[in-house]
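Format notes (please read before filing issues)

Several people have asked whether sequences and structure tokens are stored in separate files. They are not. Every record keeps both together, in the order shown below: the sequence lines, then the token lines. Line labels are part of the format and must not be stripped during preprocessing.
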Amino acid sequence: MDGTVEGDRALLDQAALTGESMPVSVEGGHDVMSGSTNAGEAFHLRVTRAAADSTYAGIVRLVEAAQASKAPMARLADRYSMLFLVVTVALATAAWWLTGDPIRAVAVLVVATPCPLILAVPVALVAGLSRGAHFGVLIKGAKALEALARINTLILDKTGTLTDGRPQIVSIVTIGNLTKDEVLHYAAALDQASKHPIAQAIVAAARASGVELPVPQRVVETPGEGVTGTIDGRRVVVGGAAFVAAQTGASDPDGTVIAAGSVVVALAVDGELMGHIIMADALRSGTTGLLAGLRQLGITRILLATGDRRAVAEAVTEGLGLDAVRSDLTPDQKVLLVLTERKNGPVMMVGDGVNDAPALAAADIGVAMGARGAAASAEAADVVLLVDHLDRLLPGIEIAQRSRRIAVESVVAGIGLSILGMIAAALGYLTPVQGALAQEVIDVAVILNALRALRIVPRTPGQLDDEADAANTSPLSPATQPGP
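Then the structure lines:
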């Protein structure tokens, strides 16, 4: 339910709704949206809207409307089946009418095999689904796999998708006589007593580096602001710069400059400011190579769509070469963006939050980060990444493309052989029994060809780069042309 904060303040994680990766301090009297997560101490909430009228319920209605208006995807087999039927009946009728021999018409009907459409196409696509699951990509059905193979435009969410979704240490700035390791040591030791997500991220970083943390004493926490306590007999204060300054009277004379979207955690020891820990929701490693690989797989347009602030979105995506960055978006604005981008071709939307669910449902292909994403987004999506790695998109798309290619090969080869057999039967070269045997041979051949999709081995981003370089280097390129 939506409501209003009663009391001084509440510390809320609104990442699933707004894309803001850092917890937000909401003052008393301000509104709180349903779908937010309490990241601090317990607080009183005065409900102002019934569940049916809440923000979360509105997002659910957006998802339902997007799914209802989504155009059905045409199956590969559906597009060819009627044409094959017309050709078969026409050949059988022509053979009987021109020769007066009904046996030839029967032979044409017997040798005609729709199995490349009825069996080979589903076999290739289902094999592709199985192969995708092997690489951590759950594709919900053959129609979704066919659509995934034809994507032209990719829209990415920021928090939890393009970024890790959790605060990480970007840098440590020392001010006093402590080293960076010592700054981390004191801050992490005291933050063991805090439930704040940023505090827990500092503790996790210290433990990952093998630091042994002493137990803090005389701990007092001010929710959402900072912690004070004693470490190894020294009085330590950790928290926001304003909180540390209020507790100790110490401030940074030069002022630490931080990038948009970052959070500064100040540390004071024995009343003196010792350093700042800069935290941010970092970009996933390998993102640049991932985007390059996606373009090599045929995606011509890549955009960022986030509910976060413009400055944060631009700071995160700097140097990535995205075609557009859209920020401060509400769930219905993300849906509108998806519908607008359809003029450039089929659209894929990738997200993980509750606010992404309507756009995932509206896109030709919605992809959800299933490992740590919201259940609502996984339910609305056509594809779910079973591991928390965005680079799973590469094998997923390539498997879809190659599975569809194998299915088309099976259709062309199978129907082509069947038409040749029908022509031979119409000319009297095949009897009905021989036509039946030829039909079985064609069926087995196309099904075996379709099963090749089980052995698809997706290329790595490095292999894609090598192939692109090879394609761009011709024997008569300037680097290899013979001299005059």
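For reference, the curators noted about this record: Confidence is low (pLDDT under 50) at residues 474-484. The radius of gyration is 30 Å.
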